[in-house]
Amino acid sequence: TSTTNLKESVERGQILLENYIGKYIDFPKILIAFINGPAVGISVSTLGLFDGVYSSSNATFSLPFTRTAQSAEGCSSFTFPLIMGSLNAKDVLLFDRKLTADEAQQRGLITK
User: Fold this and answer.
1) Could you say which of 33, 36, 65, 76 has the lowest number of CB atoms within 10 Å?
2) Can you give the pTM of this predicted structure?
């Protein structure tokens, strides 16, 4: 039935995402990210798992979870409050706040 197919598809997606994020968490070497332009979704939510994050001055960082009716991903609900504090994390995760490179650096999301 279509309900069974949907459930199986969701379960496969969950396993895929868990495996994907697990690779970041278990990676044995230093992880460095470089952002040059707009970063949206999981490319932003996983930044808390990196050892260093660098961006160009024109980079932006956006997590449209609320707008797309999704829950936070990539461990961002855990890492963002640790990195930028609870209120700043809520601003980004719950209210679709797009950050400029300067704002991301001020909040501790990027190194430079």
Assistant:
1) 36
2) 0.84
Instruction: Give tens-digit pLDDT for 60-88.
Output: 999 998 888 888 888 999 999 999 999 99
The fold of 30-106 is 2-enoyl-CoA Hydratase; Chain A, domain 1 (3.90.226)
Coil/strand/helix, residue 86? helix
- Nearest to residue 64, comparing CAs of 42, 82, 48? 42
Q: Which residues contact 98 (CB under 8 A, 6 or more apart)?
A: 60, 61, 62
- What sign does the CA torsion over 76, 82, 83, 89 have? positive
Q: 67 versus 31: which is more confidently predicted? A: 31
Dihedral pair phi/psi, residue 92, rounded to 5°? -80, -45
